[in-house]
Amino acid sequence: MRISKIEKEYLKKIKLFQKYNRHYYDKSNPQVSDSEFDSLKKEIIELEKKHKFLKSENSPSKSVGFTPSKNFKKVKHRIQMLSLSNVFNEEGLKNFEKKIRNFLSLKENVEIEYSAEPKIDGISASLTYKDGKFVQGLSRGDGKEGEDITENLKTIKDIPKIINKEKFPVEIDIRGEVFIENSDFEKINEKFANPRNAASGSLRQKDPVATNKIPLKFIAYTFGYAKGMNIKSQSNFLENLKKWGFKTNEYNKNIKGIKNLILNHQYLEKKRKEINFDIDGIVYKINDFDLQKRLGYVTNAPRWAVAHKFSANSSISEIINIEVQVGRTGALTPVAKIKPVNIGGVIVSNATLHNEDEIVRKDIRVGDTVTVERAGDVIPHVVSVDLVKRKKNSKKFIFPLKCPSCGSTTVKDFNEITKKEDAVRRCSSEGFECDQIAKEKIKHFVSKEAFNIDGLGKKIVENFWKLKLVKFPQDIFKLDYEKIKNLDGWGNLSTSNLKYAIESKKNIPLDKFIYSLGIRHIGQENAKLLARHLKTANNFFNLSLKKDIDELKNIDGIGDTQIKSIINFFLNKTNQKFLLELKKTLEIKDAIQLSHSGLLKNKTFMFTGKLEDMSRAEAKSIIEENSGKIISNVNKKLDYLIIGEKPTTKKINLAKELNIKIITQKEWLKMLN
Ligand code: IVH
To answer: Quick check: is 260 in a domain?
Structure first.
């Protein structure tokens, strides 16, 4: 058969598979029998095996099924399920510890103790026990809200259903990883790309009987909500987990000092092949719960833990083409389209080349033979070029000086801090004028961390864009549902689900709203800071009047770069128009103040000099936790100037002049009892 014919046939099958899939999961209305569905799946996979060039994101070998979002009840986690930040080497690890030392103001000679736990690459789940009974089990979902998969979890033998052991808390969410052992994965003939996908697919079967067919395992490692628990450290918690009847990882260890962490990392990386389940790194957690509490969280990861990934896998391939993609902020990212290769169990056909400078530095060209590296869930990238294999007629890659999407000139910003030109080249258009940027902005607007509109993924946004159903974010709220209903792949039910999902998100917290706008340099964390400071949507909209904007400098974390970016955002005519429309359509909830009744309510503070046993960052978070506010200038609004070692005389004098109370660190801590 000719290649084009094979491809045609393949794509036809994929399309059919998608249709069946949607009906099966989304509409709970299967169109064919299970066996017919399964044999179609097999046919596709067979074709892929025979003809390596065949691939599709919608292939059953890639996906574990249509996300069955409507099949499981959504339930909020009482305590958010966090993720972890990653480090890849000793340097990253040292930085991680340094930050902790700074935050806690720990002396060099104090050794930090960690619980080092292999990071299993599975699916995390949260199990609620009440009075010793397993009552509900949730998937992670987006960390805030998971799916109720209780019945499926009940089929897992490692999960105790009833616990009547000493010291087991009256109520607790036990958290851990659901996974499948490699030897079991080899036995099951269903085609999943890897054990992780198999575990995920099995766990989210509609029918718990189907889950029961694949031997899933569970290893416990942390907890969410807990009532009546008196445990002081992670290692002690892990010991108790065992006593209560949970399985824990046999390679968990308590370790002090970076050197020993590295030795353990090297040991486990070698051992990895012998272990019967996939691990992709080691999680380090500060062992002492009191220290964990002091360290707290940033956005959705704890300061007290980190994942130390194993080194990347790499393979050799050839660059077929270099495409330049335009991102939401206008950044032009070159991506190498490579001959598909298997890197550590995953077929890779795209590898990022980062930016223009990187291409120039490594002189990467179309046709080159390159080494491509991939580590965990990080985007694969080109590491090096094999110059010996370079073709004679190869030409230097010329980076486009015009935006490939809208044709505007491209620019490199000058970084005021590093006094260097940015490595990234950007489209100079004002955002929505460039189609590609506009599309990416809309994707960001509806994304999980922003408006979080269920069922409106990237592909659907692309499609709606193509059909001219959306051009600006506000169009999301005025969709032509009659038209959508009749689109290929859509029907009454899916359309009304989408409508419901969109309507329900019209009421949005201020921080999410600010984040959704995709203002450059305003990520989740900064959006939160701004919202907390501004309190109401009106205050935010009024920033466009520019009079209050400099006041934002009082927020620790917001600097000149951010303020300049906000000003630019409000100056743009299209932005002004779409903000106005959103203001009319949405109900934006005031920012939740951290606590309304703290001991430092309505009081403002400023520090000068070095504090004892505590960093500024920790002091600041204590003040905020108790409803106080930090300001960065001595002015009439300041209530207390807290002085540490070697304070600035100028600040003290000014405070005296303005009759501001000057107190010591001890006096301040007394205010908090
Ligand atoms: S603790 C701080 N401990 O890694 C809380 N996570 O990126 C985070 N994981 O979603 C969870 N082994 O699926 C923790 N010993 C371990 C873990 C572990 C694997 C996974 C888990 C989580 C992800 C975090």
So the answer is: yes
Question: Which residue's C-alpha comes closest to atom 23 of ligand 1?
Answer: 83
Both 520 and 651 in one domain: the answer is no
One-letter amino acid at 240 equals N
For ligand 1, atom 5: residue with the closest CA: 82
Distance 389 CA to ligand 1 centre (A): 42
Write the pLDDT tens digit of every residue in 100-149: 999 999 988 899 999 999 999 899 999 999 999 999 999 998 888 999 99
- Domain of residue 444, CATH code: 1.10.150.20
Our answer to whether residue 119 is catalytic in this structure is yes
Look at residue 42 and tell me if it is in a domain.
no
Mutate to test the pocket of ligand 1, among 86, 138, 221 (most ligand atoms within 8 A of CB): 221
The answer to whether residues 304 and 184 belong to one domain is yes
Shortest-distance Cα residue to atom 17 of ligand 1:
119
What range defines the domain where residue 581 resides? 508-589
Q: Which atom of ligand 1 is nearest to the CA of 222?
A: 1
Write the pLDDT tens digit of every residue in 195-238.
888 888 888 877 777 777 788 999 999 999 999 899 999 999 99
For the CA of 140, the nearest atom of ligand 1: 10
Ligand 1 centroid to residue 116 C-alpha, Å? 12
Backbone angle region of 38, left / alpha / beta, with phi > 0 → left and psi within -120 to 50 → alpha: alpha
Centre of ligand 1 from the C-alpha of residue 672, in Å: 34
For the beta carbon of residue 343, count every other beta carbon within 10 angstroms: 20
CB 60 within 8 A of CB 191: yes
Atom of ligand 1 nearest to the CA of 305: 2
Residue type, 95: N
Residue found by looking up tokens 């009304």 in the block: 496
354 falls within a domain: yes
- Active-site choice (12, 42, 98, 119): 119
Are residues 317 and 294 part of one domain? no
DSSP letter assigned to residue 312: P
Query: What is the Å distance from ligand 1's center to 96 Cα?
Result: 17
3-state secondary structure 600-658: CCCCEEEEECECCCCCHHHHHHHHHHCCCEECCCCCCCCCEEEECECCCHHHHHHHHHC
Whether the Cβ atoms of residue 615 and residue 105 lie closer than 8 Å to each other: yes
H helix count then E strand count, the chain:
23, 26
Calpha distance 437→331 (Å, rounded): 9
Q: 524 exposed, middle or buried (CB, 10 Å; 0-12, 13-18, 19+)?
A: middle
Q: Tell me if 9 is assigned to some domain.
A: no
Total domain count, the chain: 5
